[in-house]
Amino acid sequence: MEIVVAKNAGFCFGVKRAVELANQNAKPNEKIYTYGNLIHNDYVINKLANKGVFSIEDLASLNENDTVIIRSHGAKKEVFDYLENKHVNIIDATCPFVKKIHNIVHEYYNKGYKIIIFGEEKHPEIIGINGWCNDKGIILSEYDKKYFENSDKICVVFQTTFPYDKFKKIEKNIANDNKSVVFFNTICYTTINRQEEIFELSKNCDLVFVIGDKKSSNTNKLINIAKQNNKNTYLIEKPIDVLSICNNNLNTKKLVITAGASTPSELIKEVVAKMSDTQELKNLTDDVQKEATHQVEANEEVTMDDVMESVKVLEYKEGKKVKCIVLAADETGITVNIGSKKDGFIDKDDVELDQEYNPANYKENDTFEAIIIKATDKSKVALSKKNADKILKDEAEVERILNDEEFTLVPDKVAKNGGGLIGKIGSYSVFVPSSQIRIGYVKQEDLPKYVGKKLRLVQLPKRAEDEKKASKKIIKASQRIILEKEKAEKEEAFWSSMVVGEVVNGKVKRFADFGAFVSVKGYDCLAHISDLSWNKIDKPSDVLKLNETYDFIVLKVDRENNKVSLGYKQLQKKPYEIAAELYPVGSVIKGKVERIFPFGAFVSIADGVDGLVHVSQISHEWIKDANEALKVGQEVEAKVISFEDNKITLSIKELLPEPEKEVKVDDIEAIEKMEKPAKKAARPRMNFDNVNFEKPKKAKKEVKEETTEWKSADNGLTSLGDLFKNLNIDFSEEDK
Ligand code: F3S
To answer: Which of 37, 429, 440, 546 is buried most deeply by CB count within 10 Å?
Structure first.
């Protein structure tokens, strides 16, 4: 019979260490304690009890200065706290593999992650792990999607002895459904090796022995795995158990022996020896025994470095985030230490999000995180810092969004139901309903126009029914809220700035018969035609041009009715102000007689500006009525002789040569005495305060009407005094 003892049979590193610690600390005539059975093996437990190492479950029974060993399965954090407070000496034999899980769970729980632990709910290792996340972990034995839907921060760990085949399936499910889960393969490498080895060995043998305790979880798993290939698989708790089995399997040619992690090597040796004692196994050679023993011993030569390195090798999982320490950086990329024998390498294209990689920015011993993108490379692990940065950026962005801050999104498609747009931020989907894209509803057929265009969004206020969607990583967002808020702010700013008398700049948007619509800060205001020019105009375009900008004065603000009246002419010089500059006193103008009254004629100097030629200023000759000398429409040349209060007085006479007089020298005195009083009596000094110098709007017609009216009203009986009665004639003292 051939006997093959599995290389990975028996005590694992963690159990061996715990048993050694117990043996080392046992003292004659002194009791020390283990919190629960140190391992799942009565044989070992009994041996330890003989040395004064006892198992207890009730920590309250311990006294100050007692010594207690925490077994390789580990314990809850509160157990450590309790023992420390009670001043009990703690020997922590928690297996480093298990301790690592405690640390992961503790760290991520404190970061706000939901902790999911795959394993056996009542196993001491799982109870201990859960105690490092305040007993808030969700313990599962199978993958269940619903537990992954309630949070975007999930941390997954596995019992160290979790079946590797089940682990692979769960890993696949998580990878398919939950891209952002922080996932740790915490299965102990000795467990994997042990399980894989027995799976292979059990295929080609007649009989399989699994040595261990029936209470041992990993022992039972080994039995189940071996049974998949070989029904002749048996649990061996004590050496004696082999006898009945061998009697029933007399034709066995090949026997495979493995053992659970709690099985001491001496028990394996005893079983092998027992087999050699049996008649049926008399052919078992010394060589085989030697080989078996050698394999068992080799298994015990596992160092702490080997264990930790194995953990790291298992962590070269694609998609896993690792801490990197820069070793060197050059044009091709960055070589980093990732805490294992293999170095990592980040290609230059995988360094920066903006692809602006500069090796000078990376100094030796700089640290950052990167994602493993290819773990199979023989010499180096390929990493991407860019991917890690992207995840960080997305996570930060999602956090901002969930805190109701504004964000941007370029939707990549129309929602299947046609009710809005869909985009992605990290692991979240963002849904923008049709009613929230702009102010006003967007029709379904118009939705594609918004795909690929940047939207400014904010999370929609959550309703109770939205809470479920939030848990499904869907953010419902609105651009409309932002636009409406901005509109209200803009309106407020506009109305605050519309103060009567203030000057604003506006763009002429369109014309109407009654005025021009002017856009001021995006709002339509009206400049009425009467407020566009001091002169009479036919239409607004006589003064303004479309799409040109001008300064306007605010004339009236009616917020209630959303109306603002603007004036343009009020900011322009009046015609008489212009005329004053153009035609100073003494200058000569040419103009057309516009209206004639007996007391004088109004001559048009410029558009909207008339000057009065008093009847006395028409000629050197004495004229009773201006109509006698001038005609409407007649072109005349005149001199500006005064410009007061926007009233211009002209003189034609001053441009005419004085007529020569044939007067004898002797008569001069007599003539002067006669003429002077006569002239003064005939030409009273005129005060034009009440004369309207403005050009009437319908000049010709009005002149005609005035003339007609004057004549027809009194049939020519009105005296010159009546005619001048409204002119406020001021006789000087001398005249009186
Ligand atoms: Fe530790 Fe693995 Fe053993 S977890 S206790 S070395 S089975």
So the answer is: 37
